[in-house]
Amino acid sequence: MTKTALTGVRVFDGTGLTEPTTVVLDGAVLGGDAAGAEVVGCAGATLLPGLFDAHVHLLTPDDLSALAAHGITTALDMACWPRERVESFRGRVPDIRSAGVPAIGPGGNHAKMPGMPAEAILTAPGQAAGFVAHRVAEGSDYIKVVIEGDLLGQATIDAVVAEGKAHGKLTVAHASSVDAYRRAVRAGADVVTHVPRDGVLDAETAARMAAQGQVAVPTLTMMAALTTKLGAEGYEASRGSVAALHAAGVPILAGTDAFSAPMLPFPVVQGASLHDELVLLAGAGLSEVDVLRAATELPARHFGFADRGAVREGLRADLVLVDGDPTRDITATAKVRRVWAAGEVVA
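RESULT FIELD:
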């Protein structure tokens, strides 16, 4: 079992940076005894927990390589099929989870995506039980429902969320309009991903989200890319919605909606886009510390990863060493010097 001691490093502890200290990687976990360890001097650098991207779409093994190279050690896929493709990504770096096939309505943009399975399309609430049971049987880690206009009625959205929870699964709702957000909140989805482009989310809906313990993954990088593509002025609304959610006390998680297929003239690329997302979150009013928590502690907590998200003895040794102080300048997260996943250096 390999043991490594990172010396002279300042550690992000969830509230700021510690004084220079030593962090021990004892095999796959973080240890406390540096005896016999290989010493790696890290003076002047900052150690972060391994980063999460809480909204990606995986297509090829190259996606994993790009994510890992940018310090992402856990990636949450929000739609990938068939099952064999999802399974081919498991057990690698980053560590992934997936929704598998999402629930969608007929006739919308998602229904027109190449290769979208017919079983994804629901037209009545009575289909929710079978859909969710099939996802669970396939090994989906959480259940995703896509809310596009009124393509899925509220009763069907409610049924998908309720069935997911009945199976003990976290539920995720895609919502990129004010109306869709209200529908997702009404249904009680655990996680709402994206933010409205057609207006700033109202304070009542944001407060209800906070009261119900729901969390948001805004994907501002995708909102900005869509605004550029469509020539609309929707990004100001997206940024304003993040500010409204944050002010209401809704936990904000960092996710990008990265996808390597050529769908946008300004694509949201795997890996590098997470660092763009962190800058955009800071631009929406989150402090640098809040932004770092959005990519570490908070996704670990809200997606049920008790073994990671912090640099603490006994946790999984997922770490990112960066140059600079990201608690003062968030762009420092992109200055990746070295990455470890379960104690192993990522090439």
